[in-house]
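Worked problem 6 (solution included).
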Amino acid sequence: MFQVVYVIDDEVAICRALTKILDDVGHVVECFATAEEFLAVCERNFRGCIITDVNMPGMSGLLLQDELKRRGVSLPIIFMTGYGRVESAVQAMKKGAVDFLEKPVSPEQLIERVEQALAYDRRQHQLATAARKLNERIAYLTPREKEVIKLVAEGRTNKEAAKALGISFRTVEKYRAGAMAKLKISSAMELSEAAKLLIDSVTE
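Solution. The predicted structure is:
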């Protein structure tokens, strides 16, 4: 799915201005007057980023942020406000907003922040895709291979894993090699990263 910049602001003039600026540099933009309108069409697989006002009629930008998190929507959010409330900015950033801009914002600043947010979205999508593929591959590991992976995630060496499992060093090496082949990884660092990523699945 291609990336879209979702602008949520009750001021029509703001929506039009942001759309023109971003459209001129090639971004796809969709505007919504309220958070409720956006939530009515929002899906978990949406890609891109959100630009939203903090203070809007009905659901505020901060409440929208909470609702998106509850729904499992991970779109990066850029907050805008004409009030410059520091406490709102701090609260939004603590909850995961990627940026906070004060109106009026310059075209150059807007474009820069949007492109940063879209780059962040691409990175998160790549990580999620990699995690999903690894989780699919974990199903092919044997119970003993999963145990070895779990110990790797804990930082154990092959020797320590062998002692913990009551098996030989060479047997641990065999299980470790088998797990790496099934997970399609080739280095100890990748194995450690995969193990940490999949630790919840491994311990179920």
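Discussion: The beta strands are 4-8, 29-32, 48-53, 77-81, 99-102.
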